[in-house]
Amino acid sequence: MPDAVLMPAPVTTRKDFSAIVRRRLSSRSRVGLSSMLDLGWRAWRLTSSVADSFSASQNCEPSRRRLVQYPVVWPAPGVAICVFTSGKEALMRSFDFKQLDVFSDQLLLGNPLAVVLGAEGLTDEQMAAFARWTNLSETTFLLKPTDPRADYRVRIFTTLEELPFAGHPTLGSCHAWLESGGVARGEEIIQECGIGLVRIRREGSGLAFTAPPLLRSGAVDPELIEQIRLGMKLGAGEILDARWVDNGPGWVALRLADRASVLRLQPDYAQLSGLKLGVVAPWDPVVDGDEAQFEVRAFVPGDGMAEDPVTGSLNAGIARWFLEEGLAPARYVVSQGTALGRKGRVSIQRLGDDIWVGGSTVTCIEGRVSL
């Protein structure tokens, strides 16, 4: 009896076909397989498109005979490839998958991101469902670009909605794309996303993106500041300033006096529902050290998690505010995630008209996911 490879349907690329065949065959059946894979792939494409059911039970496990719906392909002597489908299984495909830690060079101390590569063919509903399942602040799906200037396209989902842009998904998605063999057309990598094209560059051992323009900026209404003050349990006068720094997600940023004030915040999230709030204050070199110049926290009540560990888009927005008003040097480092036991570090640098937001990324998990 030949080895039976239980091929999930549909398999649409030769890469997937070859990987599954090699992974699932015994060492005996792998002998001489390479020269037969092209023939097997062509035969598979032909036969798997046939809608008529075909009984191949004599070549497959008896316990799965009732699931056989498609023909058998023999890509090598002694090898039978059968497609098994039952209900929703017939619609599932397998994708390369990575889970990363962004804005940290140490595992488990940054902001996690799930990335599905080569996500063509997935529906909006499938992407949203998988993002809910990962239960991370963001999950991204990498696609071929529609803009000829871009190297790749990314769609970014939270557990509740799709975002036009977010910072740590930008760096993490680019890291995953490069690690999977992506080659940029120029010195910079060009990402296509909901807000348009985002430039990314290599920065030491990490990556950095150009801070996008603000969609909304300027002062915050006094009534909203008062609502935020009460929700943050801050005393009168503790908020030194507040600005809209919205580059897509909808951030409002508050400036406090010192790092300790930021770290002791315990918001009443019920009063802040629907808002996306960033809080920033300077480090005191004598008290806090010189590893960073600012401490930041990001609160997202009602968005699946109350506080985001490390936030690229918020820091990009704050950088535009602080650099335009002379509140920060042209180059500085932000600490974020301290209150959550993380050690996120975000680098900010102004070069000419550009503001670059960067950090390290490490890969924690690699594999495949069926959707």
Describe the structure in your own words.
- The protein is α+β, with helices and mostly antiparallel strands and 371 residues long.
- It folds into three domains: 89 residues, no CATH class; 121 residues, Diaminopimelate Epimerase, Chain A, domain 1 (Roll), CATH 3.10.310; 140 residues, Diaminopimelate Epimerase, Chain A, domain 1 (Roll), CATH 3.10.310.10.
- The chain has nine helices and 21 strands.
- The strands form two sheets. It has an 18-stranded mixed beta sheet that branches.
- The chain is globular.
- About 10% of the residues have low confidence.
Task: Name the features.
Diaminopimelate Epimerase, Chain A, domain 1; globular; three-stranded mixed beta sheet; isomerase activity; alpha+beta; 3 domains; 371 residues
Number of helices: 9
Distance between the termini: 32 Å
> Which CATH class of the largest domain applies here?
Alpha Beta
Let me know the largest β-sheet.
18 strands, mixed
CATH topology assignment of the largest domain: Diaminopimelate Epimerase, Chain A, domain 1
Overall pLDDT confidence: 85
* Unreliable spans: 49-76, 83-90
Q: What string, H for helix and E for strand, traces the elements in order?
A: EHHHEEEEHEEEHEEEEHEEHEHEEHEEEE
- CATH superfamily descriptor of the largest domain: Diaminopimelate Epimerase, Chain A, domain 1
CATH architecture assignment name of the largest domain? Roll
The portion of residues assigned to helices is: 10-25%
Number of domains: 3
Structural class: alpha+beta
Number of strands: 21
